[in-house]
Amino acid sequence: MNYGDALRREIMSEGVTPLIGVFDMFSASVAAKHYDGLFVSGFGFAASHYGLPDIGFIAWPDIVAFVQRLRLAFPRRHLLVDIDDGYVDPEVACHVVEQLEATGASGVILEDQQRPRRCGHVDGKRVLPLPEYLEKLEMVLATRRDLVVVARTDATDEEEILLRAKALAETDADVVLVDGVRSVEWVHRVRDVIGGKPLLFNQIAGGKSPRLSLSELAALGVNVAIYSTPCLFAAQTAMDDAIARLKDDDGRLPAVTAGSVGVKESLELLERNISRHHPKAEKVLA
After folding, report:
1. Helix 184-194 with 158-169: angle, nearest 10 deg
2. Residue 139 included in any domain
3. Is residue 283 part of a domain?
4. What is the pTM of this model?
5. Residue 75: helix, strand or coil by DSSP?
6. Exposed site from 125, 182, 198, 231, fewest CB < 10 Å?
7. What CATH number does the domain containing 268 carry?
8. How confident is the model at residue 119 (pLDDT cuts 50, 70, 90)?
């Protein structure tokens, strides 16, 4: 199955393609019940796998191993993977792209941040010189076979944002992402400078970008929307609440009622991921 081309066709179709950020196999299991596209969020993976902020701790073999597990469990889902800056070195970036494509990833996002990196929606970001990033991007583009490549800039200076967005759109990257876009006006401005190149918009709760619906994004000319952290933040909220209630109730578990989850409901979710249960005759990502 050519996962890259399947995602590329979806991106080029009418409307906005939503991709839901997942941070482990369980969050992916829940998200896959509702959406056809999953996004391996660096923010979520750093939090889940290491218990650390997303500032450069992720090691590429861990990401590759995670994507391998995802693909086995979800053969019919689009998988877009955040690879940060390609793990610093261009040769490493190309190696990771080869590994991820062989594993079954649909696409990757490559950013232009300079280390120490930051979440795209916080202050203090620094970017590589544009020629240095473009050289790395071109090497990755020459390495991929069919994988979708999203070129991302984290520039914050207004003039630099537009300069870089235009430069990224002129490459063979499939999609452009300007992370941390602060307003609808700036979505318009980026859309104008990148011409017909597909545009990706990243939303994160409490981040710098406005909260927009898929229909609003479509009207702005956005092609792809990634939701980096809804699963992660919902899990933190729910777990904190559940443990606090358990503590307040002297250690007594709550009753399993309609709409809540117990052993039966959790097992039903997980059993869907066993590969031998997947329909063999069904066309993958038809």
Report:
1. 40
2. yes
3. no
4. 0.91
5. coil
6. 182
7. 3.20.20.60
8. confident
Q: Would you say residue 284 lies in a domain? A: no
Query: What pLDDT shows up at residue 285?
Result: 56
Instruction: Return the minimum-mean-pLDDT range out of 34-48, 176-190, 234-248, 262-276.
Output: 262-276
Residue 203 has pLDDT above 80, yes or no: yes
Q: Rounded to an integer, what distance in angstroms lies between the CA atom of residue 69 and that of residue 83?
A: 17
Any idea which residue has 């990224």 for tokens? Answer: 168
Nearest Cα to Cα of residue 204 among 222, 187, 225, 227: 227
Task: List, as one string, the DSSP characters of 171-235.
Answer: SS-SEEEETT---HHHHHHHHHHHTTS-EEEEE-TTSSS----HHHHHHTT--EEEE-SHHHHHH
Does residue 281 register a pLDDT over 50?
no
Average pLDDT over residues 251-267: 85
Q: What residue numbers bound the domain in which 114 lies?
A: 3-277
Give the whole-angstrom CA distance, residue 73 versus residue 201: 27
Domain count, the chain: 1
Largest CA distance in the chain: 62
- Rounded to 5°, the CA angle 140-3-138 comes to 10
% of the chain with per-residue pLDDT over 70: 97
Whether 20 maps to a domain, the answer reads: yes
